[in-house]
Specification:
The structure holds two protein chains of two kinds. Chain A has helices at about 1-30, 45-50, 55-90, 95-105, 110-130, 135-160, 165-170, 175-205, 210-215, 220-230, 235-265. By secondary structure, chain A is mainly α. Chain A has one domain (about 50-265): Orthogonal Bundle (MetI-like fold). Chain A is globular. By secondary structure, chain B is α+β, with helices and mostly antiparallel strands. Helices cover about 25% and strands about 35% of the residues of chain B. Chain B has helices at about 5-10, 60-70, 110-120, 125-140, 155-165, 185-200, 210-220, 235-240, 245-250; strands at about 20-30, 35-45, 50-55, 75-80, 85, 95-100, 170-175, 205-210, 220-225, 230-235, 255-265, 270-275, 280-285, 295-300, 305, 315-325, 330-340, 345-350, 365-370, 375. In chain B, the strands form four sheets. Chain B has a six-stranded mixed β-sheet with strand order 6-7-8-3-9-10, sandwiched between helices. Chain B has a five-stranded antiparallel β-sheet with strand order 13-12-11-14-20. Chain B has a five-stranded antiparallel β-sheet with strand order 15-19-16-17-18, with no helix packed on it. In chain B, α3 (about 110-120) crosses α4 (about 125-140) and α4 crosses α5. The longest helix of chain B has 18 residues, at about 185-200. The chains are: A mainly alpha, B alpha+beta.
């Protein structure tokens, strides 16, 4: 018994090292005084300071945040609608097809998604004259499409668990359908909406491939800027930037998980 | 008020001049090909506590959901207090429902749960507060107003659900298995509480239940449902003592059934020859049947006498051997195997403490009953 638990402990530690050692070393080297990335020259936060001086990175970060925010909002609206259709309208002919199509972006290679979206935008510009060129708008649309897929899956699972009789109870007590939605349904699925939004937000912030396809001049996102910089060699500045991004993303994921968990607990009532 | 009107007041269904409060007329509900409720007609009177009793899938809940407006009848009509319910959505009906799962709003505290219905009626804040306070006092939950449903016990949630559905003073309160989620002890206490509340408020209650004991304790009248149809309507005693057919006799309480054939038929007695019992059963009242008609004779276990010595001068005497004894505390259930192999269930109250001289396994016993103790079932 003792042996086995020791084995599990060691396996666990090795697993975590494998997963997180690169990230931890990145974080540590972001505090490196030396300009050489691989040689430790003492503790310093100067690269963080320099980062704040770099207009190119700050500009890209601002664009990325805008895109992430707007596309996450769009994703939530589309995802909620899709989830509702899938959960509440049990019988319609293309149900299986729709359900498959909604989850498809989760497994589709990003290169294909990006390429197809690019072709679509080019064709659309030719046909209806919108969107004009590639830029922030096209990135937002692209990110909203795959963000919606994640949001739909999360909201769907929440809706499936939801006790329909509480909606019936509200309407029995005199609430009209629209009131039932805002008083009962929305508060019940709020945790799913929040975690779906946060997930869509972080996914958009992380995305490099799709954004590269559909971006245009003046709309380079943060991952794109980092990538192009890294091709010229990794600098401690990039390490600092990566550390900040890791912080933001993990905060987002943790908050998403906690809200979902809290909501589940309440729903058990 | 003389005695005569008093009786009629208590039992409006006996008075032909009394208009029914709820009138269900030829209601049928189909889900695809499946007929959940089949041509049900039912009159329920003001301030009644009516129980719909039946096994799962018999259509009792569907009938309740049609009253509340969650399901629409495929055909037929429902009237409440003279108003046709057709086309009225749930939020516009004068009914409130207490759900089996209680369906409390998990994100609102007790007070807000109860106030929700009143707020939808546009009552002012002062009045809402007062009504909520009143109903909380009635269900003895004054100290729990600020709790969330997740912080309450099962019994407390049940009372919140009851309070929430009663606070709007509906014309009809529909209760779907209101006590099913409570444990036995609590359920028995709550049964009486429910009857008291119903009597003090005078609201018409319709209760759906699969528990026959619960239905007997609660109801003024009950309707037994089977396969989408109402098979018998009556007061609890009436349904128990005079079941209309084999299904009801078997469903309500336990019963011994002997199949037989009428061999003698008169205005004040009937004799049934039963191959199973190997005797001629003497019935001391007239039954509307024809000679040589096939019938079933039903007798309740507690109406059969049992002893070790052969009694003298009794009719309907059987002999058998004790096969099985179930000691239940207040009474014991005996399973007696008759000479022909048929098994009969007999219950006896345990009036003395010691088991000396008591009937035990493998004893030869005599069973007999009075000519008026059983019921002749022709269907």
């Amino acid at each position: 018994m003792k042996r086995r638990s020791l084995f599990i402990t060691i396996a666990g530690i090795l697993g975590f090292i494998f997963l997180y050692a690169p990230i931890v070393s990145l974080v540590i080297f972001s505090f490196n005084k030396s300009r050489l990335v691989t040689v430790w020259g003492g503790f310093s936060t100067k690269w963080y300071g320099e980062l704040l001086q770099d207009p190119q990175i700050l500009g890209a970060a601002w664009i990325s945040l805008q895109i992430a925010f707007i596309s996450a909002c769009l994703a939530i609206v589309i995802g909620t609608l899709a989830a509702f259709v899938l959960v509440r309208f049990k019988k319609f002919r293309t149900r299986t097809l729709l359900s498959g199509m909604i989850t498809a972006p989760l497994v589709m290679p990003e290169v294909i998604t990006g390429l197809s979206l690019l072709l679509l935008f080019v064709a659309m510009q030719g046909l209806i004259g919108w969107p004009v060129g590639r830029g922030i708008t096209t990135i937002i649309i692209s990110h909203a499409t795959f963000g919606a897929a994640y949001a739909a899956v999360i909201i769907q699972s929440r809706l499936v668990d939801m006790d329909l009789s509480i909606e019936e109870a509200a309407s029995d007590l005199g609430a009209k359908p629209i009131r039932v939605f805002f008083d009962i349904t929305l508060p019940t699925i709020t945790p799913a909406l929040i975690s779906g939004w946060l997930l869509a937000f972080t996914l958009s912030l992380d995305d490099l491939v799709i954004a590269s396809f559909v971006s245009g001049p003046g709309s380079s996102t943060l991952p794109m800027v980092i990538f192009s910089k890294v091709r010229l060699g990794v600098t401690p500045e990039i390490n600092a930037l990566a550390t900040i991004i890791i912080l933001i993303v993990s905060l987002g994921v943790i908050v998403a998980a906690l809200t979902m968990q809290k909501g589940n607990k309440q729903n058990v009532a | 008020m003389n005695e005569q009107t008093c009786v009629i007041d208590d039992k409006p269904w006996l008075d032909a001049r009394q208009p029914p409060f709820i009138r269900i007329k030829n209601v049928t509900k189909k889900f695809g090909d499946f007929i959940a409720v089949n041509n049900v007609s039912l009159d329920i009177y003001r301030s009644e506590l009516f129980c719909l009793l039946g096994g799962s899938g018999c259509g009792k809940s569907t009938l309740l959901r049609m009253l509340s407006g969650f399901e629409l009848p495929t055909s037929g009509s429902i009237e409440i207090d003279g108003q046709d319910m057709a086309g009225l959505p749930p939020h516009a009906r004068p009914t409130n429902m207490m759900f089996q799962s209680y369906a409390l709003f998990p994100h609102m505290n007790v007070e807000k749960n109860i106030a929700y219905g009143l707020q939808r009626d546009g009552l002012n804040r002062q009045e809402v507060k007062q009504r909520v306070q009143e109903i909380l006092t009635l269900v003895q939950l004054q100290d729990f107003a600020k709790r969330k449903p997740s912080q309450l016990s099962g019994g407390q949630r049940q009372r919140v659900a009851l309070a929430r559905s009663l606070v709007k003073k509906p014309k009809v309160l529909l209760l779907d298995e209101p006590l099913a989620a409570l444990d036995k002890k609590l359920r028995e206490e709550t049964q009486f509480e429910l009857v008291n509340i119903q009597e003090s408020l005078g609201v018409t209650f319709i209760v759906v239940t699969h528990d026959q004991e619960e239905a007997m304790t609660l109801s003024t009248r009950l309707g037994v449902m089977d396969a989408g149809e109402i098979v018998q309507i009556g007061e609890p005693r009436e349904v128990y003592e005079y079941p209309g057919n084999r299904f009801v006799a078997d469903f309500i309480g336990s019963v011994n059934i002997f199949d037989g054939r009428v061999i003698e038929e008169d205005t004040n007695f009937v004799i049934i020859r039963s191959e199973e019992a190997k005797i001629d059963i003497h019935v001391s009242h007239g039954v509307s049947c024809t000679p040589s008609q096939k019938v079933s004779y039903a007798i309740r276990p507690e109406k059969i006498q049992m002893c070790l010595k052969k009694p003298k001068n009794v009719k309907n005497l059987l002999k058998g051997r004790v096969n099985e004894i179930a000691y239940m505390g207040n009474l014991s259930v005996y399973q007696i195997e008759l000479e022909g192999g048929k098994r009969v269930r007999v219950t006896q109250p345990n009036t003395i403490r010691s088991d000396e001289g008591a009937i035990t396994w493998e004893d030869e016993v005599y069973l007999w009953w009075d000519g008026a103790a059983g019921v002749v079932l022709t269907s």
